[in-house]
Amino acid sequence: MIISLLLGALIGWIAGKLMGTKGGIIRSIILGLVGSAVGNFIASSVGIGAQNSVGSILIGVGGACLVVLVGRWLFGK
User: Fold this and answer.
1) How far is CA 77 from the centre of its chain?
2) Which among 7, 1, 8 has a CA at the least distance from the CA of 30?
3) How far does Cα 31 stand from its chain's mean position?
4) Which pLDDT does position 18 carry in this prediction?
5) DSSP of the chain, one letter per residue?
6) Does residue 77 carry a pLDDT above 70?
7) What are the sequence ranges of the domains in the chain?
């Protein structure tokens, strides 16, 4: 559980830096966890799977960036 939250925070922080968003640790954790779920769903839907933790983090960051893009599209900047 703690490791999932830490990885979620890391993924959310990386995605936030890439996408230029601002927010605290709670926002990063939520973004990372939701982004990981979205990224894993999309990756598994197209037949891509992570072979190690670096791949999982990359898929999570991609999903988190997608969540940020959709959020910007829906709610504006």
Assistant:
1) 18
2) 8
3) 6
4) 92
5) -HHHHHHHHHHHHHHHHHHT----HHHHHHHHHHHHHHHHHHHHHTT---SSHHHHHHHHHHHHHHHHHHHHHHH--
6) no
7) 2-75
d(CA 34, CA 11): 10
The structure tokens listed for 50 are 């992570």
| CA separation, residue 73 to residues 17, 33, 51 (Å) | 18, 20, 32
Q: What is the pLDDT of residue 11?
A: 92
Counting Cα atoms < 13 Å in the Cβ hemisphere of 75 gives: 5
- Using the predicted structure, report yes or no on whether residue 64 has a pLDDT greater than 90: yes
CA–CA distance, 69 with 42 (Å, rounded to integer): 15
User: Please, how many CA atoms are within 13 Å of residue 77, restricted to the half-sphere of its CB?
Assistant: 3
